[in-house]
Design a protein that fits this description.
- The structure is a single chain.
- This protein is of the alpha/beta class and about 400 residues long.
- About 45% of the residues lie in helices and about 20% in strands.
- The chain has twelve helices and 15 strands.
- The strands form three sheets. A seven-stranded mixed sheet has the order 7-6-8-9-10-14-15, with helices on both faces.
- α3 packs parallel to α4 and α11 crosses α12.
- The radius of gyration is 24 Å and the shape is globular.
Amino acid sequence: MLRLVSVLTLGLTLALAAAVPAKAENAATPVPIGLAVAQTSNAALFGLEQMDGAKIAQARHNAAMGANGTKITLIFRDTAGDEAGAVNAFRTLLETDKVVAIVGPTLSQQAFAADPLADQAKTPVVAPSNTAAGIPDIGPFVSRVSAPMSQVAPHSVRQALRLNPAISRVAVLFAHNDAYCASETATFQEAVKNMGLTTVAVKKFQTTDTDFTAQIAAVLEARADLAIISGLAADAGALVRQLRQKGYAGLIVGGNGLNSTNIFPVCGAQCDGILVAQAYSPDAVAANPANQGFVRDFQAAYHKTPGQFSAQAYTAVQVIAEAVARVEKESGKKAGEFELSALRQAVNAALRSGPFLTPLGEIRILPSGEVEQKDVFVSRIAMNPDGRTGSFVLVAE
């Protein structure tokens, strides 16, 4: 009897052991997506927001997939704030992590250096915050969900004129060592010219600068009644603070670098009143269920309202995940059944296959890789009495 029991027990144990790997084999392997953004350096003020948004996208997509759907997993690599950091991050994601697609990098300057690596590897890149001219032209595997500043920036200048029709003299300040800032300031200067305003000062600075005495003196001496600033968060925020402290009382229009809640501690109470054109507004939720869900989950996770950099990173992850789902539906195969190179190419094609409903509204990635987005917003920064926290308040155009 004891021998019979032992044989039965051994048989049951072997059967259970055999069943476990069989179940694991049937489970869909998560699709790896690289997130190459700035976790360190002065660009981290943007990159940390991007990480927050991407994590919400992963959680929402995986929850929607249920038990049997193909999930995604994010692999985070730090690009820091320079070209070398982005190149190293991309190389690791492509060659070591074997990702299906990459979201990133944070800065346009980095994209021009790193995106060609992914394009050569025929791996789709979706830019979440690269707004400089020429990004989609890098190659057929490069696209973006961040609307170029040529489409967005002029809205804030028009809003400044609505608030003060007497504006005539404009000072332009920009970080000349950054590709995005150089591209954005050209857009701003063209808008100023087209609106019949006079540019009375154009002053350069660097993203590493902390003292802006010379630039501010030029603004004040030119008696500018509008200042337009294109920089990154740390430098542009410090410039705003010093500009106000030196007595400048006119309107300030900020570029995309001032489009982050992380600038609030940088310029403090002096952030108040800055006008910024945005490709995203957390207030635009009434008719957009995608934004409703994103804002709700973001606030629950981080106890704050999402900004544009979080929303665009969320959108970049979302469209890649939905592209994977489209590939599976059209092919009748799970993503894990594809060779990596074939899946990368199929996802790249699916990204350009039709509209996506995102927190940014309905968007479409054109065959060129450029994003087509209907909605653009202008917000005015309203600082709280503590002088360190605030919000972007939507301004009706």
